[in-house]
Amino acid sequence: MDGPLVSVVINNYNYGRFLSEAIDSAINQTYPGVEVIVVDDGSTDNSRDVIASYGDRIVPVLKKNGGQASAFNAGFAVSRGDIICFLDSDDVFFPNKVEEIIKARQRHPDAVLYYHRILVVDSQGVQIYRSWPFDLWVGLIRERVEQSGGWWPRPPTSALCFSRQYLERVLPMPVDGFQLCADAYVGDLAPFLGMIVGVPKALTMYRKHGQNHWSSLISKDNNSIRRIAKHFTFQHDQLKETLSIMGIKTSISLDRHLPYLMTKHALEQKPSLWKIALLVISYPSLSCASRIYQLAKLVMKRF
Question: Over pLDDT 90: what percentage of the chain?
Protein backbone atom coordinates (compact mmCIF):
# COMPACT_ATOMS: atom_id res chain seq x y z
CA MET A 1 0.00 0.00 0.00
CA ASP A 2 1.25 3.45 -0.93
CA GLY A 3 0.50 6.09 1.67
CA PRO A 4 -0.21 6.05 5.39
CA LEU A 5 -2.75 3.87 7.14
CA VAL A 6 -5.89 5.72 8.20
CA SER A 7 -8.04 4.57 11.11
CA VAL A 8 -11.74 5.40 11.06
CA VAL A 9 -13.12 5.19 14.59
CA ILE A 10 -16.91 4.93 14.67
CA ASN A 11 -18.54 5.57 18.04
CA ASN A 12 -22.00 4.12 18.53
CA TYR A 13 -24.69 4.03 21.17
CA ASN A 14 -28.15 2.72 20.26
CA TYR A 15 -27.99 3.89 16.65
CA GLY A 16 -28.43 0.46 15.14
CA ARG A 17 -30.83 1.85 12.54
CA PHE A 18 -28.06 4.08 11.13
CA LEU A 19 -24.98 2.02 11.94
CA SER A 20 -24.72 -0.06 8.74
CA GLU A 21 -24.71 3.03 6.56
CA ALA A 22 -21.93 4.57 8.64
CA ILE A 23 -19.81 1.40 8.55
CA ASP A 24 -20.36 0.91 4.83
CA SER A 25 -19.27 4.48 4.15
CA ALA A 26 -16.02 3.90 6.03
CA ILE A 27 -15.32 0.55 4.38
CA ASN A 28 -16.05 1.76 0.85
CA GLN A 29 -13.53 4.58 0.67
CA THR A 30 -11.66 5.29 -2.57
CA TYR A 31 -8.44 5.33 -0.55
CA PRO A 32 -7.42 1.70 0.09
CA GLY A 33 -5.44 2.02 3.30
CA VAL A 34 -8.26 2.24 5.83
CA GLU A 35 -8.98 0.25 8.98
CA VAL A 36 -12.47 0.57 10.42
CA ILE A 37 -12.92 0.39 14.19
CA VAL A 38 -16.44 0.32 15.63
CA VAL A 39 -16.79 1.11 19.32
CA ASP A 40 -20.15 0.12 20.77
CA ASP A 41 -20.73 1.96 24.03
CA GLY A 42 -23.07 -0.52 25.70
CA SER A 43 -25.97 -0.37 23.26
CA THR A 44 -29.24 -2.07 24.15
CA ASP A 45 -30.70 -2.12 20.63
CA ASN A 46 -29.59 -4.29 17.67
CA SER A 47 -26.25 -2.52 17.25
CA ARG A 48 -24.11 -5.48 18.26
CA ASP A 49 -25.87 -7.76 15.78
CA VAL A 50 -25.09 -5.20 13.08
CA ILE A 51 -21.44 -5.11 14.15
CA ALA A 52 -21.15 -8.92 14.21
CA SER A 53 -22.49 -9.13 10.64
CA TYR A 54 -19.33 -7.45 9.31
CA GLY A 55 -16.97 -10.15 10.55
CA ASP A 56 -13.31 -9.36 10.12
CA ARG A 57 -13.96 -6.39 7.84
CA ILE A 58 -14.02 -4.22 10.94
CA VAL A 59 -12.37 -4.14 14.35
CA PRO A 60 -15.12 -4.35 16.99
CA VAL A 61 -14.70 -2.83 20.44
CA LEU A 62 -17.59 -3.80 22.72
CA LYS A 63 -17.69 -2.00 26.05
CA LYS A 64 -19.97 -1.00 28.89
CA ASN A 65 -21.72 2.32 28.56
CA GLY A 66 -19.38 5.13 29.55
CA GLY A 67 -20.10 7.97 27.14
CA GLN A 68 -18.50 9.35 24.01
CA ALA A 69 -15.17 10.29 25.59
CA SER A 70 -14.63 6.72 26.79
CA ALA A 71 -15.51 5.51 23.28
CA PHE A 72 -12.92 7.85 21.75
CA ASN A 73 -10.32 6.56 24.20
CA ALA A 74 -11.16 2.92 23.55
CA GLY A 75 -11.14 3.31 19.77
CA PHE A 76 -7.84 5.13 19.68
CA ALA A 77 -6.25 2.55 22.00
CA VAL A 78 -6.67 -0.21 19.38
CA SER A 79 -6.03 1.95 16.30
CA ARG A 80 -2.89 1.64 14.18
CA GLY A 81 -3.30 4.51 11.72
CA ASP A 82 -1.09 7.53 11.21
CA ILE A 83 -4.30 9.54 10.82
CA ILE A 84 -7.44 8.94 12.88
CA CYS A 85 -10.82 10.04 11.54
CA PHE A 86 -13.75 9.99 13.95
CA LEU A 87 -17.27 9.19 12.75
CA ASP A 88 -20.52 9.35 14.70
CA SER A 89 -22.63 6.30 13.86
CA ASP A 90 -25.57 8.39 12.64
CA ASP A 91 -23.40 10.19 10.06
CA VAL A 92 -21.94 9.11 6.71
CA PHE A 93 -18.60 9.68 4.97
CA PHE A 94 -18.55 10.46 1.28
CA PRO A 95 -16.47 7.88 -0.66
CA ASN A 96 -13.58 10.31 -1.29
CA LYS A 97 -13.37 11.58 2.31
CA VAL A 98 -10.15 9.81 3.30
CA GLU A 99 -8.55 10.39 -0.11
CA GLU A 100 -9.05 14.15 0.31
CA ILE A 101 -7.61 14.07 3.82
CA ILE A 102 -4.53 12.25 2.50
CA LYS A 103 -4.09 14.95 -0.15
CA ALA A 104 -4.29 17.60 2.56
CA ARG A 105 -1.70 15.72 4.59
CA GLN A 106 0.64 15.61 1.60
CA ARG A 107 0.40 19.40 1.35
CA HIS A 108 0.65 19.95 5.12
CA PRO A 109 2.39 16.92 6.67
CA ASP A 110 2.91 18.58 10.05
CA ALA A 111 -0.72 19.50 10.79
CA VAL A 112 -2.36 18.13 13.92
CA LEU A 113 -5.94 18.45 12.67
CA TYR A 114 -7.48 18.14 9.21
CA TYR A 115 -11.14 19.10 8.91
CA HIS A 116 -13.71 19.89 6.25
CA ARG A 117 -17.27 20.98 5.64
CA ILE A 118 -20.30 18.83 6.39
CA LEU A 119 -23.54 18.51 4.46
CA VAL A 120 -26.49 18.69 6.87
CA VAL A 121 -29.19 16.15 6.00
CA ASP A 122 -32.36 14.80 7.58
CA SER A 123 -32.94 11.24 8.81
CA GLN A 124 -33.49 10.10 5.21
CA GLY A 125 -30.29 11.68 3.89
CA VAL A 126 -31.98 14.65 2.19
CA GLN A 127 -30.05 17.92 2.38
CA ILE A 128 -31.75 20.49 4.63
CA TYR A 129 -29.02 23.14 5.09
CA ARG A 130 -26.08 24.41 3.11
CA SER A 131 -22.69 22.88 3.80
CA TRP A 132 -20.78 24.41 6.71
CA PRO A 133 -18.62 25.82 8.16
CA PHE A 134 -18.36 28.29 5.32
CA ASP A 135 -15.15 29.81 6.63
CA LEU A 136 -12.18 27.42 6.71
CA TRP A 137 -8.94 28.15 8.52
CA VAL A 138 -5.49 26.92 7.56
CA GLY A 139 -2.28 27.44 9.48
CA LEU A 140 -1.28 28.33 13.01
CA ILE A 141 -4.52 29.83 14.25
CA ARG A 142 -3.79 30.00 17.97
CA GLU A 143 -3.75 33.81 18.08
CA ARG A 144 -7.14 34.03 16.39
CA VAL A 145 -8.57 31.45 18.79
CA GLU A 146 -7.15 33.35 21.76
CA GLN A 147 -8.92 36.49 20.53
CA SER A 148 -12.25 34.66 20.38
CA GLY A 149 -12.12 33.17 23.87
CA GLY A 150 -11.11 29.69 22.76
CA TRP A 151 -13.89 29.38 20.20
CA TRP A 152 -13.35 28.76 16.50
CA PRO A 153 -15.68 27.64 13.67
CA ARG A 154 -15.07 23.94 14.25
CA PRO A 155 -17.32 21.29 12.72
CA PRO A 156 -18.54 18.28 14.74
CA THR A 157 -16.96 14.86 15.28
CA SER A 158 -17.51 13.37 11.83
CA ALA A 159 -15.50 16.10 10.08
CA LEU A 160 -12.40 15.86 12.29
CA CYS A 161 -9.24 13.89 11.45
CA PHE A 162 -6.16 14.01 13.68
CA SER A 163 -2.52 13.05 13.44
CA ARG A 164 -1.55 10.14 15.63
CA GLN A 165 1.19 12.18 17.27
CA TYR A 166 -1.37 14.77 18.39
CA LEU A 167 -3.81 12.23 19.84
CA GLU A 168 -1.00 10.44 21.64
CA ARG A 169 -0.37 13.73 23.38
CA VAL A 170 -3.95 14.51 24.44
CA LEU A 171 -5.57 11.07 24.90
CA PRO A 172 -6.88 9.41 26.94
CA MET A 173 -9.20 12.31 27.60
CA PRO A 174 -11.21 12.85 30.79
CA VAL A 175 -14.56 11.06 30.80
CA ASP A 176 -16.43 13.19 33.32
CA GLY A 177 -18.30 15.96 31.55
CA PHE A 178 -17.59 14.58 28.08
CA GLN A 179 -20.13 11.78 27.94
CA LEU A 180 -21.36 13.83 24.99
CA CYS A 181 -19.53 16.32 22.75
CA ALA A 182 -16.11 14.70 23.21
CA ASP A 183 -15.13 16.34 19.94
CA ALA A 184 -14.94 19.63 21.84
CA TYR A 185 -12.02 18.35 23.91
CA VAL A 186 -9.84 17.16 21.03
CA GLY A 187 -10.99 19.85 18.61
CA ASP A 188 -10.57 22.87 20.87
CA LEU A 189 -7.11 21.84 22.07
CA ALA A 190 -5.72 21.38 18.56
CA PRO A 191 -5.09 25.06 17.66
CA PHE A 192 -2.86 25.41 20.72
CA LEU A 193 -0.68 22.44 19.75
CA GLY A 194 -0.09 22.78 16.03
CA MET A 195 -1.31 23.57 12.54
CA ILE A 196 -4.97 23.29 11.51
CA VAL A 197 -5.97 22.53 7.91
CA GLY A 198 -9.47 23.10 6.58
CA VAL A 199 -10.37 21.25 3.36
CA PRO A 200 -12.85 23.29 1.26
CA LYS A 201 -15.17 20.39 0.45
CA ALA A 202 -18.18 18.74 2.09
CA LEU A 203 -16.97 15.22 2.82
CA THR A 204 -19.48 14.03 5.44
CA MET A 205 -23.26 13.91 5.68
CA TYR A 206 -24.23 15.12 9.15
CA ARG A 207 -27.60 13.67 10.00
CA LYS A 208 -30.03 15.90 11.91
CA HIS A 209 -32.78 13.61 13.12
CA GLY A 210 -34.17 15.13 16.31
CA GLN A 211 -32.24 12.93 18.74
CA ASN A 212 -28.81 14.54 18.30
CA HIS A 213 -27.37 16.17 21.40
CA TRP A 214 -27.81 19.70 20.05
CA SER A 215 -31.32 18.96 18.84
CA SER A 216 -32.28 18.03 22.39
CA LEU A 217 -30.64 21.16 23.82
CA ILE A 218 -31.86 23.82 21.44
CA SER A 219 -35.36 25.22 21.87
CA LYS A 220 -36.89 28.62 22.49
CA ASP A 221 -37.26 28.35 26.26
CA ASN A 222 -34.83 29.90 28.72
CA ASN A 223 -34.04 26.58 30.42
CA SER A 224 -32.64 25.29 27.14
CA ILE A 225 -30.55 28.42 26.71
CA ARG A 226 -29.22 28.05 30.27
CA ARG A 227 -28.18 24.47 29.54
CA ILE A 228 -26.25 25.57 26.48
CA ALA A 229 -24.60 28.44 28.37
CA LYS A 230 -23.54 25.93 31.04
CA HIS A 231 -22.25 23.66 28.29
CA PHE A 232 -20.06 26.43 26.82
CA THR A 233 -18.81 27.38 30.27
CA PHE A 234 -17.75 23.81 31.03
CA GLN A 235 -15.93 23.42 27.71
CA HIS A 236 -14.13 26.75 28.19
CA ASP A 237 -13.08 25.91 31.76
CA GLN A 238 -11.92 22.43 30.77
CA LEU A 239 -9.86 23.81 27.89
CA LYS A 240 -8.22 26.36 30.15
CA GLU A 241 -7.48 23.74 32.83
CA THR A 242 -6.02 21.26 30.35
CA LEU A 243 -3.77 23.89 28.79
CA SER A 244 -2.56 24.85 32.26
CA ILE A 245 -1.75 21.22 33.08
CA MET A 246 0.19 20.98 29.81
CA GLY A 247 2.16 24.10 30.71
CA ILE A 248 0.62 26.20 27.94
CA LYS A 249 -0.24 29.77 28.94
CA THR A 250 -3.42 31.19 27.50
CA SER A 251 -5.44 34.40 27.67
CA ILE A 252 -8.77 32.87 26.64
CA SER A 253 -11.78 34.31 28.44
CA LEU A 254 -15.52 33.81 28.36
CA ASP A 255 -15.75 37.58 27.93
CA ARG A 256 -14.65 37.02 24.30
CA HIS A 257 -16.40 33.68 23.67
CA LEU A 258 -19.08 34.46 21.08
CA PRO A 259 -21.49 31.52 21.57
CA TYR A 260 -21.43 32.01 25.33
CA LEU A 261 -21.96 35.78 25.01
CA MET A 262 -24.92 35.27 22.71
CA THR A 263 -26.60 32.79 25.05
CA LYS A 264 -25.93 35.06 28.02
CA HIS A 265 -27.40 38.06 26.23
CA ALA A 266 -30.44 36.04 25.16
CA LEU A 267 -31.12 35.32 28.83
CA GLU A 268 -30.47 38.84 30.11
CA GLN A 269 -32.16 40.80 27.33
CA LYS A 270 -34.74 39.84 24.73
CA PRO A 271 -35.20 36.11 23.93
CA SER A 272 -35.76 37.05 20.27
CA LEU A 273 -32.00 37.54 19.97
CA TRP A 274 -31.65 33.77 20.49
CA LYS A 275 -32.57 33.28 16.83
CA ILE A 276 -29.65 35.49 15.82
CA ALA A 277 -27.38 33.55 18.17
CA LEU A 278 -28.30 30.24 16.55
CA LEU A 279 -27.70 31.67 13.09
CA VAL A 280 -24.25 33.02 13.93
CA ILE A 281 -23.17 29.92 15.87
CA SER A 282 -24.38 27.52 13.19
CA TYR A 283 -23.09 29.45 10.18
CA PRO A 284 -19.85 31.28 11.08
CA SER A 285 -19.31 32.72 7.62
CA LEU A 286 -17.26 35.82 8.40
CA SER A 287 -13.52 35.87 7.93
CA CYS A 288 -12.57 35.40 11.57
CA ALA A 289 -14.11 34.83 14.97
CA SER A 290 -13.00 38.21 16.32
CA ARG A 291 -14.99 39.98 13.60
CA ILE A 292 -18.07 37.93 14.48
CA TYR A 293 -17.56 38.99 18.08
CA GLN A 294 -17.51 42.64 17.05
CA LEU A 295 -20.67 42.09 15.01
CA ALA A 296 -22.33 40.43 17.99
CA LYS A 297 -21.54 43.44 20.20
CA LEU A 298 -23.10 45.78 17.65
CA VAL A 299 -26.20 43.61 17.40
CA MET A 300 -26.53 43.52 21.19
CA LYS A 301 -26.53 47.33 21.36
CA ARG A 302 -29.58 47.43 19.14
CA PHE A 303 -31.76 45.56 21.65
Answer: 65
